[in-house]
Amino acid sequence: MTDFLGALLPFWLQIVGAAVLGAIVGSFLGAALVRLPEKRSVVTGRSACDGCGRALTIAELIPVLSWLAQRGKCRTCGGPIGGWQLACELGGAAIAIGAVWLADAGLTLAAMLMGWQLLLLALLDLRHLWLPRVLVGWLAASGIAVVAAQAWAVGSFDPILVSLTGGALGFGLLWLVAKVYLKSRGREGMGAGDPPLLGAIGLWLGPLGVVEVMLGASILGILAAIVMLVSKRSIAADTALPLGTCIAATAWPLFLLQGLG
Ligand SMILES: [Zn+2]
Fold first, then answer.
1. Range of the domain at 182
2. Residue 57: Cβ within 10 Å count
3. How far apart are CA 70 and CA 222, in angstroms?
4. H runs (alpha helix) in the chain
């Protein structure tokens, strides 16, 4: 895709286009982040201020610019508004720019799709310790689709075998860890969504990628625990760390660097 667009558009215009597209996608991710946990529809209904419930105007829905214009405050009640929304819009734009800039030729669109999905999952896990099965299912399905296209392009089943091995290893590894933990400690050690998430990522990154993601996510988790300790937040053996967030935050940069498994 980069080759195709590269022939038509100068690089700076590709970056600007990616930023705008990413911010628009990010604004949908922001709506999903707020509404999915409340079981509200993501496509219908207008966003509103959390403080006073006032429905936001069309101008207030323009990604990033509306937040800057209002400095993150509601015009009616002065309450903070749109911080998570802004994070999604900037994150969505950064992912699109990163994909255009760094992904292997032919994997630009795939890198965007993977990144946007992982962004939403990472933030849902961070805020609610929740990885919706449907979203993890979409991540798995899109990974299989990208791998199948790759297999078709090279005329070999090998990419599919690598992908399925990665999926099985990712799911199996965390499923086993969860079982052993439950047996030895008598309580759940991780969210039910973590094994399926690493399985879905394994479909994208293959078995070696699964090992690398677990390594990176563990380091991130330890760093997060240190930050919590230093900031004097209470931390105990059963303090919930969003493992899914750490996994997602590691998997996407790895895909940018290495491509499919
Ligand atoms: Zn308000």
1. 132-261
2. 11
3. 37
4. 2-8, 11-35, 65-70, 83-102, 108-128, 133-154, 158-185, 194-230, 243-258
Q: How far is the CA of 131 from the centre of ligand 1 (A)?
A: 29
For the entire predicted model, the pTM comes to 0.92
Q: How far is the CA of 38 from the centre of ligand 1 (A)?
A: 19
Decide which of 102, 121, 143 is a domain's last residue.
102
Give residue-wise pLDDT tens across range 32-91.
998 999 888 887 777 888 788 888 888 888 889 989 988 889 988 988 888 899 999 999
Q: DSSP readout, 174-188? A: HHHHHHHHHHHHSS-
| Residues 6+ positions from 190 with CB-CB distance below 8 Å | 174, 177, 178, 181, 243
Ligand 1 centroid to residue 40 C-alpha, Å: 20
Q: How far apart are CA 247 and CA 226, in angstroms?
A: 18
Ligand 1 centroid to residue 261 C-alpha, Å: 47
CA 237 to chain CA mean position, Å: 26
Total domains, the chain: 2
CA of residue 132 to ligand 1 center, whole Å: 29
Which of 102, 120, 145 is where one domain is finished?
102
260 and 136 part of one domain: yes
